[in-house]
Amino acid sequence: MPEIRINSDFTRFIEYFLEENSKLNLISKNDEKYLYEKHIFDSLGIKLFFEKYKISSGKILDIGCGGGFPCLPVSIEYPEFEVTGIDSIAKKIRAAGEIKEKLGLKNLTLICDRVENLSGQKYDIITSRAVADMAKISAYALPLLKSGGYFVAYKSKKAQEEIKDARSVIKKFKGEIVDIIEYKLPLEEIYERNLICVKKL
């Protein structure tokens, strides 16, 4: 199982996120205790993909970013990437925007809209975490990818079931599943995670 090393100091991010969460309940109160393990660490699972495929820059779109996962941790950890987060729920985008401003993140753009309304823009990498099943989210993501770009979907241990249902959709939009990167969250209870990596042909 590959190891994820997180070098950045996320102390300020945690402080600002908990401040926003107290107003809006972006994550459950129970999950606040595991903000680092379940949300920050998980968001930065994409490090394993970047390292394996030697990707060091590019334009990233995070579909259904909610209160900022994974787009906020990714933009903190990787200032060399241009990151865009999109979500249709205004209060979540506002909360993510408050955190962005307090942290002074220049490489993050936040959009309040539905992803199907995006047009005229293509991305090198698209991410999605805890949004929809693989078939549905692939139909949104793949048309927005550049040729040769990657859609990286964060999934649980049920990844294989979702892949089975999504194969025809992925093929329709000229995608191919090239990798499934497994990792575990740093918790006593076993939380298996998967990055399903789809390349646009």
Please outline the helices and strands:
Layout (H helix, E strand, L loop, with lengths): L10 H14 L4 H4 L2 H9 L2 H7 L5 E6 L7 H7 L3 E7 L2 H14 L4 E5 L10 E7 L4 H8 L3 E11 L3 H14 L2 E10 L7 E9 L1
Parallel strand pairs: 1-2, 1-4, 2-3, 4-5
Antiparallel strand pairs: 5-7, 6-7
Give a verbal description of the structure.
It is a single chain. By secondary structure, this protein is of the alpha/beta class. It has one domain: 3-Layer(aba) Sandwich (Rossmann fold), CATH 3.40.50. The chain has helices at 11-24, 29-32, 35-43, 46-52, 71-77, 90-103, 134-141, 159-172; strands spanning 58-63, 81-87, 108-112, 123-129, 145-155, 175-184, 192-200. Helix 1 (11-24) runs antiparallel to helix 6 (90-103). The longest helix has 14 residues, at 11-24. The mean pLDDT is 93.
Short note summarizing the structure:
With 201 residues, the protein is of the alpha/beta class.
Question: What descriptors fit this protein?
Answer:
201 residues; Rossmann fold; seven-stranded mixed β-sheet
CATH class: Alpha Beta
Largest sheet: 7 strands, mixed
CATH architecture: 3-Layer(aba) Sandwich
Large-scale geometry:
globular
Which spans have pLDDT < 50 for at least 5 consecutive residues? none
Report the strand count: 7
Number of continuous helical runs: 8
SSE topology string: HHHHEHEHEEHEHEE
The strand order across the widest sheet is: 3-2-1-4-5-7-6
Helical residues, percent: 25-40%
The SS-based structural class is alpha/beta
